[in-house]
Amino acid sequence: MSTPEQAIQRPISVIVPTYKEAGSLPTLLDRLAALKSRPGSAALEVLIVDDDSCDGTVEMIADRNEPWVRLIVRTEDRGLSPAVLCGLDEAQHDVLVVMDADGSHPAEAIPELDRALSNGADFALGSRYVAGGSTEDGWGVLRWINSKIATWMALPFTRALDPMSGFFAIERSTLQRGTCIDPIGYKIGLELIVKCQCRSVVEVPIHFSTRTYGESKLTLKVQLQYLVHIVRLGRFKFPRLSSFIPFAMVGASGMAVYVGLLALLNYICGDVLPVWLQIIMAVLMTMTWNFYWDRRLAFWDSRSQSIWAQYAGFVSVCAIPVLLTFFLTWSFSASTDLPLAGLIGTTFGSAAGLIFNWFGNRFFIFKSAH
Ligand code: GDD
Ligand code: MN
């Protein structure tokens, strides 16, 4: 933990995103003022980035009239992450700290975060889960489980123990390394760790306090946004794997679709249509199903050709496994039920197609946009 006397070593900009935090802000500003007035402290500016809370925040800041506190009121694109990015953009100093307004994050740990950066870290996190860190009692089991699952989902991206923390510090030069920063939801810290390619993430233990005023804005919508965020980070950091896994899953769904279609066709028009035609119809429909989902989920980043050219390419790349499926289904259909024959056919066809089709499609048809 930081010692009370530790002064701020370098000029720092503190970014505080707020939404309806008029009740909490005075205490936070008092704590930051105390930090700023420690003997020998370098400059400190605070940027409050408020999403038009209309709760007296504007008046309160005006009344306090502190020249080192700036208020930015945003009226569009509401959200925690865009607010933080806006603050990072407007900040004047080269050491950037982001923290909550509600008193959960101890302002007194800021010098320690800065020190971690000076000592060579790319990113410094105020952490609850590192030795010496803690969380105030009163977190329900549910919120705790929630936080653990979210942290676990971040494992492929960072070794940090508390990457969910909204209390962190980064230098401007590191921030400028970031490409495709695409804020969604709450986890702007995790986004920056990944997109700015932060290798050395140092965690500074903090005590995470429960807010006294107002309420948490961590809604279900925010939690769903987190899932989307994890998928986007996966696509950024592991583009091949993030393409292959959905491709394999779509392939498995296609097997079920194929067998289901054969059963349906056989049931509806088994007496009228020859078997080979039923198989061809099922094959074509399944291929279209796979194409639709693969294009959306596995080859999301390909914008190279028209959809029709992609469809034609997809069909030609799939030709060999598709023919295998067709002929196996056809030959087995002589001795067994059509759906069962289809299952045998699609099992071999899909196994053959899994690697071959993915490579063919990824590198020849759906060429990656970047
Ligand atoms: N500008 C803006 N716009 N600020 C927002 C918005 C928004 O839409 N939503 C929330 N905030 C601000 C809040 O006013 C607060 O200062 C901060 O963002 C965090 O919001 P809380 O509602 O207090 O979040 P929390 O307590 O549930 O989440 C905290 O813990 C998480 C880890 O469990 C935060 O520290 C998160 O950053 C952290 O990830
Ligand atoms: Mn909070």
**Count of individual beta strands:** 9
Rg from Cα:
28 Å
Helix vs. strand class: alpha/beta
**Low-pLDDT stretches:** none
CATH architecture annotation of the largest domain: Alpha-Beta Complex
Estimated helix fraction: 40-55%
User: How would the global form be characterised?
Assistant: elongated
Strand order, sheet with most strands: 3-2-1-4-7-5-8
CATH superfamily of the largest domain: Spore Coat Polysaccharide Biosynthesis Protein SpsA, Chain A
What is the tally of helical segments?
A: 13
Share in β-strands = 5-15%
Count of discrete domains:
2
CATH third-tier fold name of the largest domain: Spore Coat Polysaccharide Biosynthesis Protein SpsA, Chain A
Distance between the termini: 43 Å
Which features characterize this protein?
370 residues, alpha/beta, Spore Coat Polysaccharide Biosynthesis Protein SpsA, Chain A, 7-stranded mixed β-sheet, two-stranded parallel ribbon, 9 strands, binds guanosine-5'-diphosphate-alpha-D-mannose, binds manganese (II) ion
